[in-house]
Amino acid sequence: MTQTITVIRGDGIGPEIMDATLFILDKLGAGLQYEEADAGVAALEKHGDLMPKVTLDSIAKNKVALKSPLTTPVGGGFTSINVSLRRHFDLYANVRPVVSFPNTKSRYENIDMITVRENTEGAYISEGQEVSADGETAVSITRVTRKGSERVVRYAFELAKANGRKKVTAVHKANIIKSTSGLFLKVAREVAADYPEIEFQEMIVDNACMQLVMRPEQFDVVVTTNLFGDILSDLCAGLVGGLGLAPGANIGKDAAIFEAVHGTAPDIAGQGKANPVALLLAAVQMLEHLGQQDNAERLRKAIVATMDAKDSLTGDLGGTGSTMEFAKAIASRL
Ligand code: NAI
Ligand code: MG
């Protein structure tokens, strides 16, 4: 059965890493059809809109999108495209797996964890952002809801269950931020009670930072609110060798968007130097989401084997390969 996905080639290095990724997905025989849709600066030039309606319609129809990084122009009052996509499709869970790869700059070897970040509320609602007339005092509103907390914590437990993972850690600051973080923790405890087979752990966010740096291999699935999740998930990417290896999924009830965590890398765009692995790992997440566990595993193994052999690695990984040479080396190991 073929499945149609929306493909957004994006800006900067976006088209290069997407070419490499689609080349490999075709070799994999994933049976995917691609509906290309524009977003970002590429779309602004063609349609006069950073996120044209045809693109939103395509994602709504196909329910799954693979997306390269996009440039949100600075100035001109544009809302971040990624933020507006999250809002439009109510993509409530930001899911970022990190796994140790061979021959990276990481200090650790046994990391295999997933952070699940609440993606729609908390400190990022951009409401009530006020600075007093004298410029001396600033306030902003943080809002946490039972509904928002419940669905993201449940997603984390379901993810753990589906992947044979053993533990979910809820990261919070309920001892100080008693209202919002307190509600999140209370709901996390309630949801955890529905999953007696999975260990539930609570950890205060500052301790979680220290534990992640000292003993990251103790973590399995981490679930947390928006702001903490933003920070912790980048910290976790750093633990395994940086943004070039970090994918992320934005999951909602009606749509899911898979992407690399890094940006458009304007400094190396158009030079064939970009590392395609982060987008490829996003494709692995997408294949898992589509129920293609075997293909996801084959692709992940081919990436690991290529990195282990140091075959045609791109410059950020210490090699001299081009984006497409690296992709071909991976494809040869599928
Ligand atoms: P960036 O991630 O684009 O680049 C940071 C550094 O990492 C650069 O030196 C870059 O060359 C390197 N790098 C990033 N991805 C790489 C890859 N795949 N292979 C090799 N090296 C790689 O972050 P920056 O410079 O802060 O942002 C540049 C643009 O990207 C901005 O316009 C920003 O808005 C956009 N952006 C878009 C995102 C998205 O659409 N999801 C996420 C983050 C940034
Ligand atoms: Mg971030």
From TrEMBL:
Keywords for this protein: Oxidoreductase
Record-listed E.C. numbers: 1.1.1.41
InterPro entries in alphabetical order: IsoCit/isopropylmalate_DH_CS (IPR019818), IsoPropMal-DH-like_dom (IPR024084)
Matches recorded under Gene3D superfamilies: Isopropylmalate Dehydrogenase (3.40.718.10)
Enzyme class: oxidoreductase
Name of the molecule in the record: Isocitrate dehydrogenase
Biological processes per GO annotation: isocitrate metabolic process; tricarboxylic acid cycle
Domain of life: Bacteria
Family according to the record: Belongs to the isocitrate and isopropylmalate dehydrogenases family.
Domain Isopropylmalate dehydrogenase-like: 4-330
Signal peptide range: none
GO molecular function, one term: NAD binding
